[in-house]
Design goal:
This protein is α+β, with helices and mostly antiparallel strands and 195 residues long. It folds into two domains: 102 residues; 82 residues, 2-Layer Sandwich (hypothetical protein PF0899 fold). The chain is built from four helices and four strands. A four-stranded mixed beta sheet has the order 2-1-3-4. Helix 2 packs across helix 3. The longest helix has 99 residues. It is rod-shaped. It starts with a helix and ends in a 10-residue tail after the last helix.
Length: 195
Amino acid sequence: MTTEEKLQHFYKISIESAEAEADKELTAYKEGLERIFQGHKDERVRQAEAELKVETESARRQMNKVLSAEQLQVKRILSERHNALKAKLFEEVEKSLADFKQRLEYQDYLVQKCNEALQFADGDEVRLLLSAEDAELVETISQRAGHPVECAEKSFGGGVKALIPARNVLMDYSFQTLLETEREAFTFKGGHPHE
């Protein structure tokens, strides 16, 4: 082999070696860039997911806040309607009681409550009181109950009150007390059975 050929061969091997080395470094550089790119891409995806999670949570809180305000508004309106209906219902009950007090059944009711009080007293002294507006019934109820009945100084809407001093007992069958008790205990029951 001549020097020229040797130089040509050496040149060829050197070029091939340099090209192989350059390819190797280029591949390593590309792989490094690919790793950096993938890391950057993964980081951006994580940031985007975190931002999405924060925004979703913020939207959920905002939606819950609006929903809660709407629920309070609905409850307030419902409560106002319930109160209006309850007031109307008790107006009708009071009107029905006023009508009832004009009938003979009212006197029967008064006599029945007087007899219940007398039976409960079991011989102890009993003071039977009718409401002030029932003053004209005192004599009739006294005769029918077989026990003296008095007229109270104040109105209690009708009915009877019985005082048993020996037992320190007040039996209150007054319409006013019965209405107040019902008004406090009254609740609307409606809607679905599971509510």
